[in-house]
Write a structure and sequence with these properties.
By secondary structure, the protein is α+β, with helices and mostly antiparallel strands. It folds into three domains: about 80 residues, Arc Repressor Mutant, subunit A, CATH 1.10.10; about 100 residues, no CATH class; about 80 residues, 2-Layer Sandwich (Alpha-Beta Plaits), CATH 3.30.70. Helix content is about 35%, strand content about 25%. The strands form three sheets. Strands 3, 4, 5, 6, 7 and 8 form a six-stranded mixed β-sheet that branches. Strands 10-11-9-12 form a four-stranded antiparallel β-sheet, with helices on one face. The chain has a two-stranded antiparallel ribbon with strand order 1-2. Helix 1 packs across helix 4. InterPro entries: CBASS_pafABC_assoc_protein, WYL_dom.
């Protein structure tokens, strides 16, 4: 990694830390944070003098002023601009993803990305590194549907996949390939002293080709689906298809009708409800009934 690129990365890491909810960051804490984040990127070791020199460059390049408060013994960002805040958080993530891989790597062998920006997360660089060098990882995982219950996991990471601006880890857990929401991962640890043989025969894209999003359940059958929408909704669905299998069979002033072929999962039903104002399910009948029940229950709750 070049010195100039390394310096920009380091500055973005500093900004990221100082934008946390914590108002004042002690010198030792900031130094340790920057050191760990740059180690993850195989960068040159840094000390507090290097970080302090970066403060001046941050102000010159980004217009962000970093000050030290003697009373609270910590660094803080002075008069932070919320728009700049959002822009540089996203920029930081892009640097993380690009530079966690060296220039000779093929991005698609580690990351399965969609065509929109993901949510920010600090886990991504460490997970990419673990995947790249075949190191097991351990973490505490939050099960949202179990009222936030947390369980410890040790898995063999294989891919990262983005879906609807969220990142998911595809990893073997007790010899089963599972999907983990990166937002639900806490206390990530890489086992640098251990390695495993990464299964390169997995066709990761094929795993999800018959599903909507990242919910892949082979026990749910693949079905032919036919849906009808208004012409207005049709214009949106032409620009952003529901699924790669989408085919247009009617497109006129009164109706936009499509067919799809995929598994009818909860994620897919939720996607249909998101544009339900003009939706008519033609087939299968059980999907039509499922949507009708959702409408009925919602009506009962709101009357």
């Amino acid at each position: 990694m070049g010195k100039k690129l390394e310096g920009i990365q380091r500055m973005l890491v500093i900004i990221n830390k100082l934008k946390e909810r914590q108002r004042y960051v002690p010198r030792e804490e900031l130094e340790e944070y920057v050191r760990l984040r740059m180690e993850e990127r195989d960068a040159t070791p840094v000390d507090i003098r290097t970080i302090q020199r970066d403060f001046k460059n941050i102000e010159d390049l980004f217009g962000i002023c970093i000050r030290f408060d003697k009373k609270w013994s910590g660094y803080y960002i002075n008069e932070e601009d919320s728009l700049i805040n959002e822009q540089y958080e996203r920029l930081l993530l892009n640097f993380d993803l690009l530079n966690a891989l060296d220039k000779t790597s093929n991005l698609h062998t580690y990351v399965l990305a969609e065509h929109h920006r993901p949510s920010d997360t600090e886990c991504l660089p460490a997970l990419i590194k673990a995947i790249k060098f075949s190191h097991p990882v351990a973490f505490d995982y939050i099960y949202v549907r179990e009222e936030g219950r947390m369980r410890k996991k040790k898995v063999l990471p294989h891919y990262l996949k983005e879906d609807q601006q969220r990142w998911y880890l595809l990893a073997y857990d007790n010899n089963m390939l599972k999907t983990f929401n990166v937002d639900c991962i806490r206390n990530l640890r890489i086992y640098y002293e251990e390695t495993f043989k990464r299964d390169m025969d997995i066709d990761a894209n094929d795993l999800f080709k018959d599903s909507y999003g990242i919910w892949n359940q082979p026990d749910i059958p693949i079905e032919d689906i036919e849906l009808s929408y208004s012409a207005l909704d049709g214009r949106f669905l032409k620009s952003v298809p529901l699924h790669h299998s989408q085919k247009i069979i009617a497109d006129n002033e009164t109706e936009f009708r499509i067919t799809l072929r995929l598994r009818i999962t909860n994620d897919f039903v939720m996607a249909l409800l998101a544009r339900s104002s003009s939706l008519t399910v033609i087939k299968p009948l059980h999907l039509r009934e499922r949507i009708r029940k959702v409408y009925e229950e919602a009506l009962q709750r709101n009357t």
